[in-house]
Amino acid sequence: MEALYRKYRPSTFADVVGQEHVKTTLQNQILSGSVAHAYLFTGPRGIGKTTVARLVAKAVNCLALNGGEPCNACDACKDVMSGSSLDVAEIDAASQTGVENVRENIIESVRFSPNKLKRRVYIIDEVHMLSTSSFNALLKTLEEPPAHAVFILATTELHKVPATVISRCQRFDFRRVSVETIVERLKGITRDEGANVDEDVLLEIARHADGGLRDAESMLGQVLALDEKRITMEIASLVIPATNRLMVDAFVTALAARDAKIALGLVNDALWHGVDLPQFTENVVAALRDRMLADLSSELAPLIESLLEARRHMKGARMVQLPLELAIMKCCLTQNDPKVQAGRLDSVRAEPVVAPAIVSQAAEVRAAPTVSPADPVLPTEERIEPVSTALGDVPVLDLEDVRRKWPEVFEQIKACNATLPMVMQTGELTAVEGNSVEIAFAYPVYVEAVNQDKNRKLLEQVLTRVLGRPVRVRAKHVKKEVEEVVDQLIDAFGGTVV
Ligand SMILES: [Zn+2]
């Protein structure tokens, strides 16, 4: 089966999906005969840069332009479309031959008049891959381009293109295509293919493609290849990479119920199933955003913000799931924050569309206690034993003692609280001063969790019992190296890490 993105490759500017700003300007230039000698197309992969470059190659040579569109019928158009024209060269700079071509072929051939067409067009894909000497050779040509030459340079990594080259080009920034636009496009293809695909499948594909039209089209191709009479989400999930909608819905429902156990269980399941967690997180954000806009309510904003923060921290994290787990803790355990009070999140409580296979593991632990007012707390009589407070009777507490007893403390906490042990696992005992034990955490949200009265008291009671003396607990935030590096990078790049 021919790849859909090839089969449906636009033959006119009107057919190009999105990129309106680019198309309008280019078509005006083509109509007025003011085409530039060098263009630089930048933007993520798979959003139409090469497609538009080929349309320009056709339009600047077309013998019967039709309102800024190539006619696709004249000899010149046919010549370009056949891919055999000697006057249109397409070079992939990412390949070794591409690099050689630029230096030896292009720079040499550009001086000669076109073989047959009006203009010689050079399309250089992934131009940032060129060697320094190739760039220098190219630059010389761009400084004094022959009248008949048009260069179209395309890159996904603008920062690797020398400023001297950029300054010689007219630059167009290609943008990610919106989910709505991709869905429309996929609907059109589905119709033309005579296929029956549920709309939520198209939506899922569009979301997964992250603005990349080519990825969306190729995913649709795989779905259509399943060759079912009607393609439902259930069938499509065989093909769509495993960030499926059901899991996202289950996760949103768990967050709405502030059920950290279920939510954490789902993250665990997702990892186990090889789900791409950053993508999963984005899908959850997209689902929450849809609901926020549908309800015209800002109540979901803090939840979305913490998930976006988690998404940002996933890059560079050694445990990719950790930022998401922290966001869950923050959303589910922050008891006093009115924004996440149980009742307030009712608006996101979806019909529980939960795939049994997916959440079975999580559901098993549903009965386990979470941090809630109903938590089993140690019997009052056992609280803070009246141990001798005379210093002479009790040896001074030191860090090593506490460390040695820590596993026992951990086990006892585990016996009466489900979430606190998970928090404790991420912390590190850093100091003991007098009767005060200090635990350091890399994330403020864990500090908050331990400092909550109920949790802190429980920890202190258990420590007091295990160590045989009154103990106080202090949680503090210590930045990890990795986190610091990520923060620095974020600052350096102006706060946008994708
Ligand atoms: Zn034509």
Structure description:
Helices cover 49% and strands 9% of the residues. Strands 2-3-4-1-5 form a five-stranded parallel sheet, with helices on both faces. The model is unreliable at 335-393 and 493-498 (pLDDT under 50). It has 498 residues and is an alpha/beta fold. It has helices at residues 4-7, 20-32, 49-59, 75-82, 96-109, 132-143, 163-166, 179-192, 199-209, 213-224, 233-236, 245-256, 260-272, 277-295, 301-314, 322-333, 356-364, 399-416, 420-425, 444-451, 453-467, 481-492; strands at residues 38-42, 88-92, 120-125, 149-155, 170-173, 428-433, 436-441, 472-477. Zinc ion binds next to helix 4.
Quick summary:
The protein is α/β, with parallel strands linked by helices and about 500 residues long. The protein folds into four domains: about 5-175, Rossmann fold; about 180-235, Helicase, Ruva Protein, domain 3 (Orthogonal Bundle), CATH 1.10.8; about 245-365, Zinc Finger, Delta Prime, domain 3 (Up-down Bundle); about 380-475, GMP Synthetase, Chain A, domain 3 (2-Layer Sandwich), CATH 3.30.300. It has helices at about 5, 20-30, 50-60, 75-80, 95-110, 130-145, 165, 180-190, 200-210, 215-225, 235, 245-255, 260-270, 275-295, 300-315, 320-335, 355-365, 400-415, 420-425, 445-450, 455-465, 480-490, and strands at about 40, 90, 120-125, 150-155, 170-175, 430-435, 435-440, 470-475.
